[in-house]
Amino acid sequence: MRVRAPRIRHPRRWLGGGAALATALVVAAGFALHHPAPVGYFVSAQAQDRFLRAYDRAMADLPEPDRTLDVRTSYGVVRVYHFAGPASSSSAPPLLLLPGRAAPSPVWADNLPSLLRLRSVYTVDLLGEPGMSVQQRPISSARDHAQWLHELLRGLPEARLHLVGLSIGGWTATNLAAHRPEKVASVILLDPVLVFTDLSPAAIVRSVPASVRWLPRSWREDFASWTANGAPVEDVPVAEMIEAGMQSYVLKLSAPGRLTDERLAGVRMPVLTLFAGKSRMHDAAAGAAHARHVLPHAVVKVYPDASHAINGEQPEQIAADIAAHLARLP
Question: Which is one GO molecular function term here (predicted)?
């Protein structure tokens, strides 16, 4: 059993942007592909040790998982944590949480208490990202991204699951629903990027220097704060974990491309999309309007005062909207 440090509450308003710390690195991911290594890797054992220490510190802010699973797929081994929800929901499809780029499971610390009042929850360390998952095969297309996640869901015992995708995790969830929907009960998107609208020019420009691991740490921290509209990131365990991952891990993933309207129109299951009205990553109003147009069956809401750090800023409201979404389903 992991020994926990005393829980210290930090100001974590920005933590949704913890996922966003590298959301715009969808651009920078392309730069990594010139290196001959076919899969993601830590640059050294010392760098990996630094990241793992930061990961363990950040995990101490989560409830204790009742199961830790390493699920083998044809693309690698995926680390999954299971957190048991209320007994009354034991037969209901659980939530499976997909984080943003460079932000593994600890990014959900603020959300788990309220979500666990609704359902059991799985958190996932995305394959090919810094975390406990181990990539073993190239992921070089949207179909590859969908296939490894489909294989993960197929390896879990539940017949169906609700996907909750944050930032680039929203793209990951929607991409799966479009390509391999067999086990997807519904899709819940938290300020998703590259699903309904493009990245903002400012996000693209600011992401490039933040993605260069040999540049000063302050550059990556400044980008993290910018994505959360200026919220502080110093001395926050999840922020330290994400920065350590960005500095020590080389991504070898194809950069996600904007999902086409034709592909989106093929998403038939229920969809809830929650946009951050003050997100700097994209034009949230335009994204919401396009979501309503291309998915007329979806429920689309805009949190007017939220930044891209939406999950850390609005955990209770998000849980309430997810509860209402689940209640509408048969």
Answer: hydrolase activity
Q: Among residues 302, 199, 298, which one has the least CA distance to residue 255?
A: 199
Contact 229, 278 (CB under 8 A): yes
pLDDT of amino acid 317: 98
What pTM was computed for the model? 0.87
pLDDT at 255 (0 to 100): 84
d(CA 173, CA 177): 6
**Cα dihedral value 55, 21, 64, 128, nearest 10:** -70
* CATH code, 15-325: 3.40.50.1820
| CA dist list (Å): 312 to 57, 141, 227, 236, 291 | 18, 30, 12, 12, 23
Residues with Cβ within 8 Å of 306's Cβ and at least 6 positions away in sequence, in order, are 191, 276, 277, 278, 279, 313, 314
* Higher local confidence (pLDDT), 224 or 103: 103
Domain boundaries, given as residue ranges, for the chain: 15-325
- pLDDT (mean) for 105-128: 97
Task: Decide the pairing of beta strands 121-124 and 76-83.
Answer: antiparallel
